[in-house]
Automatic annotation (TrEMBL):
Top-level taxon in the UniProt lineage: Eukaryota
Domain called Thioredoxin: residue spans: 1-113
InterPro entries for this protein: Thioredoxin-like_sf (IPR036249), Thioredoxin_CS (IPR017937), Thioredoxin_domain (IPR013766), Thioredoxin_H-type-like (IPR050620)
Protein name: Thioredoxin domain-containing protein
A Pfam family that the UniProt record links to this protein: Thioredoxin
Origin species: Hibiscus sabdariffa
């Protein structure tokens, strides 16, 4: 597992599977950030997620580029970027579509405290 306080980028399906399994086992809040290099709103939200990851030790953020890992994006029915999916122990508990900074911060704060 990567150091605490990091956003973990998954560049291969194997890396995704490994990091997702470790994240599930951690019992922490997991936020999967589906992004794309060409997506302007994704670039705006990236520093917000990095900051939250540093502040909240019970948070894991996995970053997935939809162009690199198309199959993973399809498996999660991602249609727009950024899409953030919030999970606890592998179960989806919430979702945000779009670079909605306030909503993302509220959901992470709410779910990481639970």
């Amino acid at each position: 597992m990567a150091e605490e306080g990091q956003v973990i980028s998954c560049h291969t399906v194997d890396s995704w599977n490994q990091q997702f399994q470790l994240a599930k086992e951690s019992k922490k809040l997991v936020v999967v950030d589906f992004t794309a290099s060409w997506c302007g709103p994704c670039r705006l939200i990236a520093p917000v997620l990095a900051d939250l990851a540093k502040k909240l030790p019970n948070l894991i953020i996995l970053k997935v580029d939809v162009d690199e890992l198309e199959t993973v994006a399809k498996d999660w029915s991602v249609k727009a970027m950024p899409t953030l999916i919030y999970l606890k122990e592998g179960q989806v508990i919430d979702k945000t579509v779009g670079a909605k900074k306030d909503e993302i911060e509220q959901k992470i704060t709410l779910h990481s405290a639970a």
